[in-house]
Amino acid sequence: MDFNEIYKQKLTTADEAVKVIRSGDWIDYGWCTGTVDALDKALAKRMPELSDINIRGGILMKEPEIFKLEDAASHFTWNSWHSSGIERKAVAKGFCFYSPIKYSELPGYYRNSQTPPRVAMFQAAPMDAHGYFNFGPNASHMAACCEVADIIIVEVNKNMPRCLGGFENGIHISNVDMIVEGDNPAILETGAPAPTTEVDEAVAKYIVDEIPDGACLQLGIGGMPNAVGSLIAQSDLKDLGVHTEMYVDAFVDIAKAGKITGLKKSRDKGRQVYAFGSGTKKLYDYLDENPECMSAPVNYTNDMSVIASIDNFISINNAVDIDLFGQINAESAGTKHISGAGGQLDFVLGAYLSNGGKSFICMSSTFTTKDGTVQSRIKPTLSNGSIVTDTRANINYFVTEYGIVNLKGLSSWQRAEALISVAHPDFRDQLIAEAEKMHIWRQSNKR
């Protein structure tokens, strides 16, 4: 089979490719750094003649051209699997909506969906000698999406890193309907992590002290998990492993500091396993053609039973706020949408079930509003409309700059006491008073 000849036959322009899209279609736009670029521009030109288009995607790295249409909401709806700041802003414009689902469920959802995509289009690395287009750092759910799509359009980007792995990290040309050679934009970067604060460093130290040699790490999105990663890179820890949802810059730093070997992993020994990656050019260069790094679908990376099978699994995630019952909100500010469920709960549960494993939820004890008011992130109850990402029964360790507490198995009064002990001192008396009103405070508790 001459793959190059087949390539020529399927090669077309972005403008021609989007002509297959019809009003009423469900379309997939790729994922994170694999979101289409040239095809997006072409569809933006065509969109005014279309209506009732439903598009799925997530973690947008730049504003799509279709978002810039004046009457976008009259032509399409963006259905986000997980939101970036770009999608949060689009919610207020009336055409962007979050689709609540555990991230680990996406491949299965596609394969059993009653509304599969008619068209799937995404950026991929150039075809290799065996006829495969690599998904780059976006294995995630893309193979499952392609399995059920009627039409598959690959937008080739020469700058997309080839991310090797286990399985479901690419698509063969025989399964592709059209190929578009885009403008080869640089893979979008999230930018270097913000400098760590004293609060970040205090939280990180509590967590790093709990990590043993040979542990397997998962780091969530955000400043605090990255701060933990930076401290790990400077620590004396050794023979660490990686099994994570999102591969972030901190893992590169830890690996280059010689801390990651993966030799103690009880599964995928020697491999750094991840579902998708996003960060700076340093990260993309590290993942490119790196056989140590294993790009895999999210129903494997985030499978609770897989996580639990890895000894000494350490899960580190952050959140928006927590109430005195131990309910974690990592998705909203009241009814204002921020993010999504992602894989946090899978890692919280899986890490706890791991032999020697620990799950950490970390946050600063307070935040400052736009008008300068300081508020506690530890609340008597979650704000009206706030989403419960992790239920009170699931939390293991909780960390602020004022300490670390293990909430697993504690009764309601013990839990309230533990959480108040790591709250900002200025809010502790107020929280005690509220706990008393809710009958989760014993008179013998320390004030």
TrEMBL record:
Keyword Transferase: yes
Domain Acetyl-CoA hydrolase/transferase C-terminal per the UniProt entry, residue ranges: 279-435
UniProtKB keywords: Fatty acid metabolism, Lipid metabolism, Transferase
Binding annotation for CoA: G220, I221, G222, G223, M224, V320, G343
Pfam families linked: AcetylCoA_hyd_C (PF13336), AcetylCoA_hydro (PF02550)
Gene Ontology BP annotations: acetate metabolic process; acetyl-CoA metabolic process; butyrate biosynthetic process
UniProt keyword Transferase, yes or no: yes
Family: Belongs to the acetyl-CoA hydrolase/transferase family. Butyryl-CoA CoA-transferase subfamily.
Function: Coenzyme A-transferase that converts butyryl-CoA to butyrate.
NCBIfam families xref list: butyr_acet_CoA (TIGR03948)
Protein name, entry field: Butyryl-CoA:acetate CoA-transferase
